[in-house]
Every structure is written in C-alpha cells, then in structure tokens.
Amino acid sequence: MKRFSFLVLLLMLANLVTSQTSYTNFSKETINTDQLPIRDVRKTAAWFNLGWNGIVGIGPVITIYAVPKIAIDAGLGLSSTGIKLSGRGRYLFSVKNFTPFVGLGFQYGFGSSRDIQLTDGFNNNEPFSVKIFPSPFLQLAGGFEYMAKKGFFVLFNVGYAILLKDDNYKITEGSPSPDQLRVLDISYGSGIVFEGGIGYAF
Predict the structure, then answer these.
(1) Taking the model in full, what pTM does it have?
(2) Which has fewest Cβ within 10 Å: 47, 79, 84, 142?
(3) Which pLDDT tens digit goes with each residue over 76-116?
(4) Is 86 helix (H, G, I), strand (E, B) or coil?
C-alpha cells in the first residue's frame, strides 16, 4: 500500500513538472502589454515625412526602436537637392506614449542629373538655369513623438541642417539677381529644419 501511494505521488509530481510552461514561452500579449513601455510592444513605425530640410523632404520613413528610448530612422524621399537618402538616431526622454526627443542625423541629396530651368522673381521673371550637385547634410533636431496604444504615430520636430560642403549648386545659364541668389542659398544650403510625420507603429 505504501509503495502504491508512493508511486501515485511520484506520477502526480512528474505530471506537475512536465505540465509547467516556462516564462520564455509566453508572448507579450499573454504577459499584459499594458505594463510594458509602448515602444517595447511596438518596435517598428512606418510613417510619411513632410517638411523643410526634413529627414527626407517628402517621402516614407521607417523607425526601429532598439530599446524604448532609442529610435533609429531611415528614409528615402524627394527634396530640393534631389532624391534624398537619410538616417538619424534619436534619444527619447520618456518611455510614455508622448515624449520629447533630440536627434542627430545624416542626409544625402543626390543632386540633379540635368540643369533645372528657373525664373528670377526679383528681376521680371528672367530665366536662368542651375545645376544641383550631391549635397551631404548633418541634421540636428529636437521635437516630440506620440505613439498610441493601438499604433497611431505622429512626430514633429525643428532644428538645423548643416551643409557639409562649400558649394552644392552652380548657375549654368543666365544671371540671377542677388536677392534670387539668397533664395537659392536658402533652398539648397544650410537652414532651419521644420518637419512632421504621421504613420502607424506595429
């Protein structure tokens, strides 16, 4: 009888051990995602960027969250310096849905393959032509980001883009006025960053 009782107890113990599931087998949804930082649940965001001296100008951006407070942006878009390829790292000050951030990025505009025909608005719309060369920029930015529990994503930032070469355009035809040349410097050179984005995180 004692042997039988011992055997039953041993079988019950074996069944209890083999039926256990380790913590590593649980998904984040099983654990309770409300207790986790939102960017630890949704580690990737796809969004559309629009702005002046923005990370891509106009175009799509993908953001990867290495950890909840570190974001890595990469995008490809169209800007005044041609097709622009960019990457940026951002530090988020909070793990909450809404957080301010600072960022440092590199942007590369591929320039124009041919001369661009323009008119001088300060001189009776006189025509002239300009050639845009490849343009590397360093972007310094600060702003805020919001990521909703269900994935809605919005971002806004300001800052400054620094052109990393002396000249990135050349007048190939015509003689634009000094005022028009200042407009070209603002359009193609260093300047204020003003941009926003909207998308979805998953």
Answers:
(1) 0.79
(2) 142
(3) 999 999 999 999 999 999 999 999 999 999 999 999 999 99
(4) strand
Q: What is the DSSP string of 17-51?
A: HHT---GGGS-HHHH-GGGS-HHHH--EEEEEEEE
Check residue 137 and give its pLDDT.
Answer: 98
* Better pLDDT: 94 or 26: 94
Structure tokens at 168: 């990135």
Ordered by where they begin, the domains of the chain are 40-197 (2.40.160.20)
Rounded-to-integer distance, Cα 80 and Cα 71, Å: 26
Q: What are phi and psi of 49, to 5 degrees?
A: -105, 140
